[in-house]
């Protein structure tokens, strides 16, 4: 897959590298702006269980 993307990018090696960096940054930006905030309520990271009885006796 990465080879296919690399072959289809225009320009020399340096231009391809720059375009690749920009594309990776764009994907990371989209993930942090829209995908992760949308998915956060669906993930169980805040569902924790803490034994309050044991902490009070110490």
If you had to describe this structure to a student in words, what would you say it looks like?
There is one protein chain. The chain has one domain. The longest helix has 27 residues. With 58 residues, the protein is mainly α. It is built from three helices and no strands. Helices cover 67% and strands 0% of the residues.
- The overall average pLDDT, rounded, is 87
Poorly predicted regions: none
In whole angstroms, how far apart are the ends?
57 Å
Count of individual helical segments: 3
Secondary-structure-derived class: mainly alpha
- Give the SSE order as H and E letters: HHH
Please tell me the total number of domains.
Answer: 1
Q: What's the gyration radius in Å?
A: 22 Å
Report the sheet with the most strands, covering strand number, pairing sense and barrel closure.
none
| Total number of strands | 0
Shape: rod-shaped
Q: Strand-residue fraction?
A: under 5%
Give the helix proportion (percent range): 55-70%
Overview in brief:
67% of the residues lie in helices and 0% in strands. By secondary structure, the chain is mainly α.
Annotation keywords:
58 residues; mainly alpha; 3 helices; 67% helix; rod-shaped
Question: Helices and strands in order, then pairings?
Answer:
Blueprint: H1 2-8, H2 13-39, H3 52-56
């Amino acid at each position: 897959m990465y080879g296919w993307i690399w072959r289809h990018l225009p320009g020399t090696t340096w231009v391809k590298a720059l375009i690749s960096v920009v594309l990776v940054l764009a994907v990371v930006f989209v993930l942090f702006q829209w995908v992760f905030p949308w998915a956060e309520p669906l993930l169980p990271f805040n569902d924790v269980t803490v034994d309050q009885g044991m902490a009070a006796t110490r």
